Amino acid sequence: MNRYQDDYRRSLDDPNAFWMHQAARIPWFRPPTQALTTGDGGHARWFADGELNLCHAALDHHVDQGRGDQVAIYWDSPVTRGKRQLTYREMRDQVALCAGALQKLGVTQGDRVVIYMPMVPEALIAMYACARLGAIHSVVFGGFSSRELALRIDDARPKLVISASCGVEVDRVVPYQPIVADALRHSAHAPSGCLYLQRDAVRAELGPGDHDWEESMASARPVDCVAVAATDPLYILYTSGTTGKPKGVVRDTGGYAVALHYSMEAIYAMAPGEVFFSASDVGWVVGHSYIVYAPLLAGCSSVVYEGKPVRTPDAGAFWRLISEYNVKSFFTAPTAFRAVRKEDPDARLLAEYDITSLRSLFLAGERLDPPTYHWLKSHLQVPVIDHWWQTETGWPIAANPLGLTPMPTKAGSATMPVPGYDVRILDRRGEEVPALTHGSVVIKHPLPPGCLSGIWGDPERMAQAYMKAHPGYYLSGDSGYFDEDGYLFVMGRTDDVINVAGHRLSTGEMEEVLGSHPAVAECAVIGTQDPLKGQLPLGMVIPRADFEGDTTTLEQELVALVRERIGPVACFKQVLVVERLPKTRSGKILRKALRHIADGEAFDTPSTIDDPTSLEDARQAIEALRPSDDDAAAASPPRQ
Ligand code: COA
Ligand code: AMP
Known about the structure:
The protein contains 19 helices and 32 strands. It is of the alpha/beta class and about 650 residues long.
């Protein structure tokens, strides 16, 4: 029997029965009587009359079932030379105390808590403590600037901000308190306080309204899990859209728990007691789902890594971690392995470690480019699996379901739609296209459990962004095709979202920042191919007619401005000051043509172009920026 096909068909033919069966496998305070109902705006609501607590399902329940002495998280931090492990019992007790501390600071059910922390166990403890109280966390990645943090504070309106005194990067310590303080100066909303974890590298000077993590924990009393409705939000996670305002993806509790639990078995083939390692960050969706929640829901141990694939100390870091913690399944972004391959092209460091515990390698965050796929296949004796998903879905949409029916992999493909996801490819008119034809990748309603339940504070935006383009379908924003065997190939975004080192960024937002500089009249930001990071942003600006300054200084100011406003994670390091940009006769900048020029690709001059000679100007300006052949050869190309 093909278990994948069986699950897939049942999940679409009778979603109620399929997901009720899966729901029965996690602990509820009040089990749901029905899986799927329809909420306002026609969105799926899962397990609406069920009650549970995710912290209970992931921690207390396992302790009660005899798993208390098993390690829940292994923390490994080469950047601070720190290592720690916490058992399920220790995690539960720490989380219960932290929940008590948050409660003392006024946090109650439904309140939002913004968490701006590095990869430390306390970040997970804080997230679980929120879940325990029924509070809604919103974790912000440490590589975002104070302005980005302020945007999120204003949107989520948190009761409390939880942070640490610093994050530690390879070559520098990043003090977080000044960033938080600056964000609070710029935000209209004022949380009632900030809780800081003090780290040795830099200590935060606490002022009025600031609280010390250790002291708060020491004086707190443990609190129990509250029952929340399955449809109550567990968290808000902001992600880049097409505008300057990030979208607050809202995740429910019950559907998410059921979907994650199912995925650990069906996709990742993990059994309780085994070790899962996802080398992401708690600030991204991969971190939320597969560092923090899913491994513990499934009774596994999770590796929490504060380090990089390379330089901490070398390109053998992943192999060391897999070997040291007996990792069974490892998950990271292709860019991380491009970095490893660049440093250690023949994977010589692999020979220094015993990685026989490893059974599978999963990659996501961007398309697994065939050269990296082949490199991994040639060095590892395990399935190398590309799987496709988004912040919005919270778990994979397409994958090779190792726990159901492992399938042969194909380079460049994320294999097949995961049970629950009815994936289709549509053309511009909304018609389904035949195999091997490119189109817009959409998901027919209803979305399975675990996917976004809304956009925080803006129900209309959910409909606008995802539902309007093709009624009855969720618009993923990605383009791709199915081959004759039903394998899905996801090729890239159809909007102005770019993917830099597995991080999703909005070029529209960068344009807003550039446009705010007083010397800039017009600008465009495009994503260009990069052999290491997949894509990098390139800005092109036309100065105002009265601009008399030095263009090099202006370029430096613009690079600094994007770093200050969005953060180092934007990797915005290239900007060109030009006299004109190619435009249509109606004045729209031809960004697609600029992208083709930057990537050295052939294209037809758009018929709507105002002045064809403007393309030649753009080509010359961009070509002057291109890396030399030597630089380009130093890394493997991201595409075939
Ligand atoms: N706090 C503060 N700054 C941070 C940060 C954090 N948490 N994370 C990254 N930054 C900074 C970096 O220091 C760097 O700053 P710089 O411009 O001064 O050098 C900048 O943001 C860009 O970071 P990054 O893209 O991580 O570049 P890198 O050169 O340090 O590392 C890779 C390159 C490929 C090794 C790294 O991007 C990587 O491991 N990517 C995997 C991504 C991933 O796991 N994505 C999750 C989806 S699965
Ligand atoms: P994020 O929401 O940050 O997880 O980014 C989601 C986007 O990353 C998707 O819409 C895709 O554009 C891209 N992406 C993630 N995983 C893959 C993959 N396996 N193949 C192709 N694109 C991917």
